[in-house]
Specification:
4 helices; 90% helix
C-alpha cells in the first residue's frame, strides 16, 4: 500500500518527468548551483593577493584571465548539469520502485 506522499510523488513525477529530463532544463536549473560551487575559486584568486604577496606577484606575471574564466564556466556547467542529471536519475528510480510497489499491492488485493 502506498502512502499519501508516495502517491503525490507518483502523480507529480508523471507530469514532470519529461520536462525534467530535457538537457536545457537540467542545465538552466543546475547552473546556479554550479556557479555557487565555482565561486570559491574566484574568491580565492582575488583574495589571495592579500595573504601572500610574493605568490601574487609571480601569479599575476604568468596569469591569463581567459583560462580562469573558461575554468570557472566549465566547472559551473559540469557541476550544475550533472547535479540535475543525478537528481533526475534518483527521482526516476524512486518512481519506478513506487510503481512496482503499487502494482504488487494491486495484485495481492483480493477481488
Amino acid at each position: 500500500m502506498l502512502t499519501d506522499d508516495e502517491k503525490r510523488f507518483l502523480d507529480w513525477w508523471e507530469k514532470n518527468r519529461v520536462k525534467h529530463k530535457q538537457v536545457s532544463y537540467q542545465l538552466m536549473a543546475g547552473l546556479p548551483l554550479g556557479i555557487l560551487f565555482s565561486l570559491p575559486i574566484i574568491l580565492n584568486f582575488f583574495l589571495g593577493r592579500f595573504w601572500y604577496k610574493r605568490a601574487d606577484a609571480v601569479g599575476i606575471s604568468q596569469f591569463n584571465p581567459a583560462v580562469l574564466v573558461l575554468a570557472v564556466m566549465a566547472i559551473s556547467v559540469f557541476t550544475g548539469f550533472f547535479n540535475k542529471k543525478f537528481k533526475w536519475d534518483q527521482n526516476e528510480q524512486k518512481y519506478l520502485e513506487l510503481q512496482h510497489k503499487a502494482t504488487k499491492s494491486d495484485e495481492n488485493k483480493p477481488n
